[in-house]
Amino acid sequence: MLGVARNADQKAIKDAFRDLALKYHPDRNKEPGAEARFKEIAEAYTVLSDPKKRSDYDSRGFAGVSGFSRDDLFGGINFDDIFSGMNAGFGMGASGNPFEGFFRRERHGPSKGADMEVVLSVPLERIARGGEERFQLTRPITCPACHGTGEKDGAPPPRCRTCNGMGRVSRGQRQGANHVVIEQIEVCPECHGRGFVIEHPCPECHGTGEKEQIEDLSVKIPFGIEDGMALRIHGKGMPAPEPSGAPGDLFVVIHTQPDLRFERSGADLIRQESIPLVDAVLGTTLTVPTLDGTASVTVEPGTQPDSVLRLKGKGLPFYNGTHNGDLFVRIGIKVPETLTGKERDLYEQLRSSGGGKPAQGGNTQWIF
């Protein structure tokens, strides 16, 4: 699962695990199958990083490590050591374990609310430097007046008498000579499957148990964050289906805001510059914008259309890296659509003198 050799040492195993965990953690990777792949990677690491479990696996295969509980697998791993000094881009659990919540365990208490997802467009300058980005979110919350029950003053709603709180009713029908009873299960028409009815609706939420709220939120943008990465804000998702349950989480998917100056390609930036034909022939110096000011670019004589010039280190920082990408300047050639009389005479002189035509001889050369 980790892609390491059978005789790999602990450092190679830890490095491979860290790289794959950062790539597939569901807080960062929203592709289908990422969470399942992440679980496989984490479980593989817990086995290979422990000498005893690794020995059992080497000798007996999967049978040697079957039967371990979640605590058996993850209890002895120092996650702070593995991810220290890194903007991992995913939240740690209450125990400091970034894998908390992704493995099967017995659930205690009421159900948690569903997670939500929003897309946040972030300018290049924020991605380059990191920092806080503020935004507004409209979401339903548990009604504070009735605490989600839907009943006035927060009283528990009475059980539906039609279905006795089951949310379903059965209807029997006798068919055939032997009077076979066919039972059909249907959603209760009285409570519509909820198992209870609202007799005295809460005046604040009109019996729904929820209210819509506009919130001002902020999220910390790690410098160099990759396009499409998701950041988690705990407790800002949908309200729980049960009054005493915790709300879900909010995933903020980062997209790079369109910029008139640059196009983003990972950590690199691309800029289009158009120059007059004469500057392409004779050469020139351009002043181009960068994320931290301007820079001079030398256009050599004879530069061809779509040539690309590179400004090393003038792009975005690499996520969790120590250096920057590059700024690439693509050169376009502006051919004049209209000419003054003097300009036309000069171009005619150039053409009559053979400028721009292939020279005679074995090797093709261009004469200007």
Features:
single chain, 368 residues, alpha+beta, Helix Hairpins, 4-stranded mixed beta sheet, 3-stranded mixed beta sheet, 13 strands, elongated, disordered C terminus
Would you give an account of this structure?
There is one protein chain. With 368 residues, the chain is α+β, with helices and mostly antiparallel strands. Among the domains are: 1-105, Helix Hairpins; 263-335, HSP40/DNAj peptide-binding domain (Sandwich), CATH 2.60.260. The protein is 20% helix and 26% strand. The chain has eight helices and 13 strands. The strands form five sheets. The chain has a four-stranded mixed beta sheet with strand order 8-9-13-12. Helix 1 packs antiparallel against helix 2 (34-48). The protein is elongated, with a radius of gyration of 33 Å. The protein starts with 9 loop residues before the first helix and ends in a 16-residue tail after the last helix. The model is unreliable at 91-96, 100-106 and 358-368 (pLDDT under 50).
